[in-house]
Design goal:
Helices cover 81% and strands 0% of the residues. The chain is mostly helical. It is elongated, with a radius of gyration of 22 Å.
Length: 156
């Protein structure tokens, strides 16, 4: 009887976990694109305000655009890998090795993208003085906190 309860709980946990993965990709993409455009404009403004040399500011804005492009490509790749996982999940004959290969490829692609973005971060840092870096990151943190999820007031 105890084993049956554990199996039922495991089945419920797996079902709930899989239910979270069935949302079609692309929902709300118009909102994401508009938010991305606002974010790019805000980031360009922050760079213009904190980097005193206009030519250096333009170079840094171009690097930030590269970061955004890389993040978009990474998201697209991730969606493609998840579509492969969804298709494999539908196959009764799918093996753990097949899932493992897709997951390995997904993780390797994410790591490669993260390494590129990290390289761009250090390139930006090398172009700035310590004071400019502090001002820029402080302003970025302020902007980020404005968009962070705000807790709902009680009673609402």
């Amino acid at each position: 009887m105890n084993t049956a309860k554990v199996l039922i709980l495991a089945l419920v946990a797996i079902t709930v976990g899989m239910a979270g993965c069935v949302r079609p990709y692309g929902m709300g993409s118009g909102y994401r694109e508009a938010a991305l455009e606002r974010g790019i404009a805000e980031m360009n403004e922050l760079v213009s305000q904190t980097v005193k040399d206009p030519e250096k500011a333009k170079q840094i804005q171009a690097i930030f655009k590269g970061v955004i492009t890389e993040a978009q490509q990474s998201l697209k790749q991730s969606r493609e890998y998840h579509q492969k996982l969804f298709a494999l999940n539908a196959s009764y004959d799918a093996t753990p090795e097949q899932f493992g290969k897709i997951l390995d490829d997904l993780n390797n692609a994410r790591m490669a993208s993260a390494a590129k973005i990290l390289g761009m971060r250090f390139k930006i840092k090398s172009m700035l003085t310590a004071q400019e870096w502090k001002e820029l990151t402080d302003e970025m943190n302020k902007a980020r906190s404005r968009y962070a999820a705000q807790p709902k007031a009680e009673g609402m």
